[in-house]
Amino acid sequence: MWDPYTVGSIKKIESVQRRAARLILGQYRRTSSVNAMLTRLNWEPLASRQHAARLLMFYKIHYGLVATPMPLDIKLHPVPTRVENSLAYHVTITFILFFPRTVHDWNILPEAVVRASSPEVFRGMIHR
Fold first, then answer.
1. CA–CA separation, 27 vs 45, rounded Å?
2. Residues 85 and 121 in one domain
3. For the whole model, what pTM was predicted?
4. Are 56 and 75 in the same domain?
């Protein structure tokens, strides 16, 4: 999964998406709102799509639905803390950027979301 995280990389991708929206809708005027076009096309910003994709991949790794071992230690709180769910993880590695970038977002998801019955249900719950 390609996941740019630098501001410059994200802006480059977003600019391609914005130009594509203008092309698809045929609205090239400087006064035309690209944000309105993106809303009309129901296109999410790159940051939102990547956030959801990272969480979905983490869900699949956690539940063993992909052939990627979990290199993190689960905290195993018997009762969720005020800010973390009961399936929260402790970051033990920093050289694979995916995990440090995703674990905080996973840890603060509501209990019902991290215990979703399937990837499809999970995806629907995080897109609300």
1. 19
2. yes
3. 0.74
4. yes
Same domain, 37 and 50: no
Tell whether the model's pLDDT for residue 108 goes beyond 80: yes
For the residues of 44-84, what is the DSSP string, one character each? PPHHHHHHHHHHHHHHHHHTT-SS----SEE---SS--SSS
At 9, list the tokens.
């990389």
pLDDT digits (tens, 9 = 90+) for 3-47: 666 778 888 888 999 999 999 999 989 899 999 999 999 998 888
Which range marks the domain in which residue 108 is found? Answer: 44-128
Pair (30, 90) in one structural domain: no
Alpha-carbon distance values, 25 to 28, 36, 58, 64 (Å): 9, 11, 35, 42
38 and 48: one domain?
Answer: no
What CA–CA distance (Å, rounded) separates 69 from 74?
Answer: 13
Please enumerate in sequence order all residues whose Cβ is within 8 A of that of 93, keeping only pairs 6 or more positions apart, or say none.
71, 72, 99, 100
Residues 34 and 96 in one domain: no
Residue identified by tokens 């480059």 is 12
